[in-house]
Amino acid sequence: MPSNLWPPVFDTRRLLKALDELAGNPEQSAAVREKGHCVVLAGPGSGKTKTLTTAMARALIEEVIDPRGVACITYSNECVAELETRLAKLGIGPGDRAFLGTVHGFALSQVVSPYAHCVSIGLPPDFRVATRTECRTAVETAHAAAIGDGDNPHRRWEFAVEKRRRDVDRTRPEWRGSSPELADFIETYEAELRRLGLIDYDDMPLLAYRMIKQHDWIRAAVAARFPILFVDEYQDLGHALHELVLLLCFGGGIRLFAVGDVDQSIYGFNGANPELLESLTDRADVTTIKLRFNYRSGKRIIRASMGALGEDRDYEEIEGAPDGEISFYEVPHGLDEQAEEIATTIIPDITEKGISLGEIAVLYRAAWLGDKVADALRRADIPFVRADPKGLVRRSSRLACFIEDCAKWATGGWRQAEPRYSRLLARAGTFVYGRDASEREMQDLSDRLIGFLNSSIGSTESAHAWLQRCEDELVVPWREISRNSESDWDVCSEMISNTDPANDLDMPINRFAGRTEGAGRVTLTTLHSAKGREFDAVVMFGVNAADLPSYKDKKSAHSLREARRSFYVGVTRPRKSLSLVFQEHHPSPWVCELAERIEG
Amino acid sequence: MRLSRLSIRNFRNFQAIDVPLSGNVVFLGENRVGKSNLLFAIRLVLDPTLPDSARQLRLSDFWDGCAATYDDPIEVHLEFTDFAGDPALVALLTDFRTAHDPMTVSLSYVFRKKPGMSGAPETSADFDFVVFGGGDETRPVPGRVRRRVAIDVLDALRDAEGQLATWRSSPLRHLLEEAISAIPSADIDAVAAELDNATKALEGFPTIKTLEDELRVGILRLSGKAHDIDARLRFAPSDPFRLFRAIAMFIDGGKRSIAEASLGSANVALLALKLAEFAWRRKKNDRNFSLLCIEEPEAHLHPQLQRSVFKKLFGGEDPAQALIVTSHSPTLAAVTPLRSIVQLRGRDGATAAFSLAALPVSADELDDLESYLNATRAELLFARGVLFVEGDAEEALVPVFAQSMGRPLDELGITVCNVAGVNFGPYVKLAESLSLPYAVITDWDPLDGSKPPLGRKRTLDLVQIMLGIRGKPVMKPARLATLETKDHTYFANQAIKTGIFLNDRTFEVSVANTPALLKPLLDILDEQGFGSTRTGRIAAWRAGSVAVDPTQLLAMIADIGKGRLGSRLSKKMVGLPPPKYMADAIEFVAARV
Lengths: 600, 593
Hints:
The structure holds two protein chains of two kinds. By secondary structure, chain A is α/β, with parallel strands linked by helices. Chain A has helices at 12-21, 26-33, 48-63, 77-89, 103-115, 132-146, 153-166, 174-177, 180-195, 203-214, 216-225, 238-249, 274-281, 299-309, 335-352, 367-379, 398-416, 421-433, 439-456, 463-481, 491-498, 509-512, 557-571, 589-599; strands spanning 38-42, 70-74, 98-102, 128-129, 198-199, 228-231, 255-260, 287-291, 293-294, 316-317, 325-331, 360-364, 384-386, 522-526, 535-540, 574-583.
């Protein structure tokens, strides 16, 4: 065998450097070297991602022998992209040896797809993922068949979804023991999907769980491929992942390395439950490591965050970090005026301190509030980008982010290979073929992609026209040959209509690509979408007595705690400056607590 | 892990073969039956060094009998099992599990018309190939799988010295490189310096110096100054880093180079080095499983070496390595574990394959069969037809009778297999598995008549075995009960249809009852010089005044010994026709080979 066929050896220098960087932090150092089950509790700004990626790199280089590898599961596709970037810096590209993905991606690509044809789980060989419309229709059909009252099927389905996500193991008595009519509803719905050869997103981890539980050889196969499982954002990942972890790690020989922060658990509506992470830390066979240092914020902001949360944590700023500033803006009137205040007073105040627009974020609870801020900024001629679900580029969509990166490449990125073409191609390969593509298929894919990108270099097209061409030249032909049942091909046409010139929404392609002259754009985002991100300055919009907590939050202790945690997430985003905007004399009680805390 | 199944369709000699395999595999077959094509088919799936251009086959690679429209693709499928114990292999192969058994993985190569092609394709460009796993074309087999589960082919061990002499292809290369890398460079420099001294001493001899100068002048004259290569006579290159490339293997305690060894020894050295290289690759974690293909090792390996080398190779089962050997050597076949054997035979314009991997015999029966094959140099495996007989007498006589019938067995490729008793079952299973035409020649054995004849139950048991192995329903108890009531004439006539040929008593009695054979038989008895009673009986039988009494006849034969009688008979019976049941058996097989 000629030597050029030998697999490349990992470059250990980058790993050694990364390990060296953690030397000053005993908790991080211990975590990355831990050889047993390990849970890392990581507060805001504590270097969680760095710890995770360094631990992964160390495992791949020092511990796991080729061709075995490691898997890392995280909350969203956005988190996946972030981890990919960070791992690339450590010299590790995603490939056969390092799986990076969401719970759904893991379940589908590592369990359901490869083994469904070997076991009787009721899936046809060419099953695909149902569209939203298909799911809704199946809900209606199942409701008529299983429940059959005059209620709104979709409202009833919300309860069913909660049960479906919580009662992962249906052989346990709870499944039929409580709300058996919902169990019927769910089973009828699933049978209806199967009849059509479909699965939905919630099916993926549930099917994977059932397959692993019933077939020891599948558990052994997963363990053979991934002797170590890394889980990021454990607190957000819900019951299905937790049950999978219990099965694989505490019953299947896989080592667990989980990272999370119960204080930042804000995805209850998706089935997340902070107690799951806590239950891991209670286990005797798990080493729990708490990261103490906050590398992000100064002492003052850390103290404020304790007030925001209403509990004490022993977090410490690093030596020499500036204190950080906290400003309160009391506005005489309601939300519209508060938005106006942000555009006319607060942002100019911040920029005056030497912080650029690109380093400022405005945070709010729901996307409709973002509309108000967006309108105000537009009037004040301040450039901004929305990272919430109403943004032009949906952050949760891999395809949308890919298209945005293509625009970045075409508008100048090709010069510095930023983003890199090889990465763009690899991502395209995933959309079209899933994990497995032959060399020839990749060649055809590359011909098409580079043809489109090349013709876009120096183009004077508007974003709308360019997206239209992208749809015609890439999305439509790819969709036709796609083998990946997970791809969201509709997102491009969505962006086309969201840049419709008839509604005055079009823009130059370089602005779509995020290339702005000067100081960048203010980020507008919801508290949920802000998770994991950080900015020099953060403006929290509408922290009013009536809104935080809202009437709805106060309905249960559970939702009240979750609302408070989301406030905490916002407060812990800034590095230097935190501004809180609320109606005069009517601040949120949590703002008051925060203020008291910094005074004391 | 082990290779558990191979199927090939529509490729060169192969219309369709699909055989179970058991670990190491030996493909036995005559020349031109397609042994090399079969190895190439396996390489299409597994060989990491095979370029895409070689995987893009040609129209001429389709089986000759395939339709001119080329609608049926060329297919090669390999299945592996027993990989679960090695996590690295599981990690590599788990995506390719088969629907029929998750503990089996399949890897496939398919060469077929491009989609949308209408009409008959004209060139290779109208086709494309896919290599995939799990029976699912959307799961391509990545290059790393082929590197880590790799195939190595040793072509008909014909140029072992050549391979050993060329640095690039030498299996010594990696082993030496590794060994050398562990030596401090100062020590290597010291060796280089010593060699340099030796070279200087060499150049110090006037005749050497003159020779070198002459050669240099000669080269210079031919090449011109600009292209002069500055040639020197050396023991080894003086560059310390190239020094070790001059290290070679010597034999006879270092006295002679391997090139001077007999071809056989060089081949054995090459094999041993190859195996060492595989072990080294596994240790280096370059590879997790090696499939070593050896083409016709007998070509240049002395039969004694074949026996000892392959006994060793087949003996030590290594889960990370399997052997595929093609051969037409009876010597090699004789030492091959029976279940490893796959026989290739041309049949109706295509090559058919018959595997013994799933031969349904017990461990004891397997032992018996293997010892039989070993003792007979595996003659059975190379025959075109076989006559199974009970003992030495028949073994000696059947060829003589066949000759007198104008059916010379050697020329027809029919062998006589003496099962030394009446346990025909395992042998019949073997012949059935090889799809070999055969007949069983056996005695009715009526004994004293107080019990059912032994031949009846023996025949019924054999028929049940045949039905079972052909996948047909066996006879029900009711049918058996009916057959057990039938007399000899009816029963023997029925048995003929299944290839079982019965006499009405025993072989010797049949000979006595065949008029043309009675005289030579009595001659032999006479030669024995029995007492007056027996001599009188013999005379009476000869005169025809008294019918031959079986009991008395057998008593006399027992004194002579059946085997000795057989060999004497075979000399006296040249040109004489056999008893009818035996003639029928010979004709039966001769008509089918």
